[in-house]
Amino acid sequence: MLDQDEQSLHSRFTDFEKFCRKKGLKMTHQRLEIYRELLTSKDHPTVEALFLRVRKRIPTISLDTVYRTLALLEEAGMTNRIQTSEGLTRFESDYGAHHHLICKKCQTIEDFTWKSFDTMLLPPELEAWGAIQTRNIVAEGICTACLKKEKKH
Predict the structure, then answer these.
(1) Whole-number Å distance between alpha carbons of 71 and 48
(2) Which residues, 6+ apart, have CB-to-CB distance to 27 below 8 Å?
(3) Where are the domains of the chain?
(4) Within 10 Å of residue 119's Cβ, how many Cβ atoms?
(5) SS3 breakdown of the chain: % helix, strand, coil, rounded to 5?
(6) CA geometry: angle at 74 spanning 122 and 77, to 5°?
(7) Per-residue pLDDT tens for 47-98?
(8) Pairing relation of β-strands 99-103 and 138-141?
């Protein structure tokens, strides 16, 4: 019997396979491995980081395949793109409502939740704008580890 994490992974793979089929695409071993790596990554990897990790298992994979697979996953709503102030694009597969803390020194990204923000009524001028579909806070600063390193120098 599968544990909850394995069931979740299996369900997400099945959803991705259905999406690919609907688009007339095959579920290739490369696509599956890229998605598996993204699903199990906790560090919000860049395209290049995903490529290097998957290449350890599939030496023939191309960077272009990783880019195209991430574009597919994004189109399917199965990955989120996180843009840092330094221009890096990072990716995640976490579906739940959450926000991001980004260290401007080491580029570490951490997730956090803020229930009161997520349920707060929007200002009337935003309500008049149209339909708000997502709310996302990106807080940037310097993490504790980098602050400790600064104090040592």
Answers:
(1) 14
(2) 16, 17, 20, 21
(3) 4-83, 96-152
(4) 9
(5) 50, 15, 35
(6) 55
(7) 999 999 999 999 999 999 999 999 999 988 889 888 887 788 999 987 678 8
(8) parallel
The radius of gyration of the chain's CA atoms, rounded to the nearest angstrom, is 18
Cα–Cα distance list, 77 to 12, 13, 53, 93, 116 (Å): 11, 13, 23, 9, 25
DSSP state of 86: T
**Token duo for residue 79:** 């990955």
CATH of 4-83, one of 3.90.600.10, 3.90.1150.10, 1.10.10.10, 3.40.50.720: 1.10.10.10
Which residue stretches of 24-153 are H helix? 29-40, 47-57, 63-75, 115-119, 124-129, 144-152
Look up the CATH number of domain 96-152: 3.30.1490.190
Task: Give the whole-angstrom CA distance, residue 33 versus residue 95.
Answer: 19
Spatial separation of the C-alpha atoms in residues 3 and 85, rounded to whole Å: 38
Give the pair of three-digit tokens for residue 28: 């290739």
- What pTM, to 2 d.p., does this model score? 0.79
Quick check: do 4-83 and 96-152 share a fold? no
